[in-house]
Known about the structure:
alpha/beta
Amino acid sequence: MTPNFPDFVKGYPEQGIHTIKLKDLLNLRAPQDLCRDISTAFPSVTIGSVTLVDQIVLLCLDELVRPESILEIGTFQGFTTRLLAKNSMARTIYSVDLPPTTQTLIDTPEAGKILSDGDYNDDYLRDLQNRSGELYLNNLPPAERSRISLIKADSTQLDFAATFGPIEFAFIDGGHHYDIVRSDTEKVASIMRQGVIVWHDYSSGIHSDVTRYLADRAADHRIFHVHGSLCAFQLVSP
């Protein structure tokens, strides 16, 4: 972990959600990394993917922490899995999502409900994933694909210690209900001695339970939200 990252974090109160600028993270990067190239696909127009700003947040945090193992909860179509495989130096990238099913949850999607109802949105994305699979991983070079371990399981039922061992970077973007976000977070925290936990859909107009859970968590933890993104994060220190 770069030494200036913990120092930056400690400059904020120990509790609460603190909004920072993307520039604040960029300014923490080491001088030798300033001209580093990154590789990404064009941002997906599909609902449920990550924006370009979200991608830069993830890559900044990965660079600042330099994890050996990454855990992503919520593979979806594999966009962020690919992003991390192309850019992170981590030896292993675990990505967890529910097993595929032939069941269709929504027969005739309604655009308005997809954008306004969190449960409906999740069902729509589940149907989409069942049809497409992890399409962003299809043409990855073998060396990059070999670092990815796809795990088809309900994250709330997994034994994290036995399945993953210690990790230093987690991206939580799976089920959006309060209890699921809490379960994923607590299980991640149980196997992370130091590193960073990143949540997606903070401040989302659809998945309000993520924001509500993090507001509760911030009563005892220092949480950061990067302005202009849907990413919030917590630095975990020994």
